[in-house]
Design goal:
132 residues; mainly alpha; 0% strand
């Protein structure tokens, strides 16, 4: 995720809170994977399947890691997606991850992590949700 321009990351963050206009902008401007990740984070099984089918398993694993699924964490580690592990931990309000993001001047990811945490805390998720 570190390769995206800051404005794209800010836009992605806005989709977490339901900004449909920006969501559709991401879809039509070459960032369907971020739109799908946003939908997966918000509970869409179809988006999760799309990520897996379209060569973005790291984002499907991120979604599952945010849910605390250890198998997803292990997959991210095995495939050397260390940053996504840190980001998943930040979404779960793990202080070490938040400190690491701040220390590395990645405050945009802290803002996104808080949006994800706030969104997920306000929603009920089916425990039958697809597992990575």
């Amino acid at each position: 995720m570190l390769h995206y321009p800051p404005k794209i990351l800010v836009a992605f963050g806005e989709t977490i809170t339901g900004n449909e206009k920006i969501y559709h902008w991401l879809l039509s401007h070459g960032y369907p994977e971020l739109a799908a990740l946003s939908s997966a984070i918000r509970g869409s099984e179809d988006a999760f399947k799309w990520l897996m089918a379209n060569k973005y398993p790291q984002y499907a694993a991120l979604d599952s890691a945010i849910d605390g699924q250890m198998k997803a964490y292990a997959w991210l580690q095995q495939h050397k997606f260390e940053f996504l592990i840190v980001f998943a931990d930040a979404c779960r309000e793990k202080q070490a991850a938040l400190n690491w993001l701040a220390k590395n001047d990645l405050k945009v990811f802290i803002r996104i992590a808080f949006k994800i945490k706030q969104y997920r805390d306000s929603k009920f998720f089916d425990y039958h949700k697809l597992h990575f």
